[in-house]
Design brief:
It is built from 5 helices and 5 strands; from the N terminus they run βαβαβαβαβα. By secondary structure, it is an alpha/beta fold. It has a single domain, classed as Rossmann fold (3-Layer(aba) Sandwich), CATH 3.40.50.2300. Helix 2 runs parallel beside helix 3.
Length: 117
């Protein structure tokens, strides 16, 4: 059975490129969104194995979406993807108990490692 994922980022081009990379890593992208609200709706609809989500977006931040997805399924495997690399962001993510954290530009080896574990 192949793994499934949704990809959420307000940068449309990034979503398309990142989705392509996931497909090449044998992960079916079953949904694409561009804001926090779409992330929550897609998670409810698609119930993916993984959620790849940007943290800074319109219509509900990634943090808001992560909290709400965790309310739906506390074991959801969420991987934050962001350009920020500061202690404040990392501290907030640790409190949310997510599956992983990826910095932009993304490292494909890190993505594969997170999907495989």
């Amino acid at each position: 059975m192949s793994k499934t994922a949704i990809v959420i980022d307000d940068d449309i081009e990034f979503v398309d490129i990142f989705s392509q990379l996931l497909e090449e890593a044998n992960t079916d992208v079953v949904g694409k969104g561009h804001n926090g609200k779409e992330a929550i709706d897609l998670f409810k609809e698609k119930n993916p194995n993984f959620v790849f989500i940007d943290l800074n977006m319109p219509d509900g931040t990634g943090f808001h979406a992560i909290r709400n997805i965790k309310k739906i399924d506390e074991s959801a495997k969420i991987i934050a993807v962001t350009g920020k690399n500061d202690f404040s962001t990392q501290g907030k993510l640790q409190k949310l108990d997510i599956h992983g954290f990826i910095h932009k530009p993304v490292d494909m080896n890190k993505i594969i490692e997170l999907i495989e574990n």
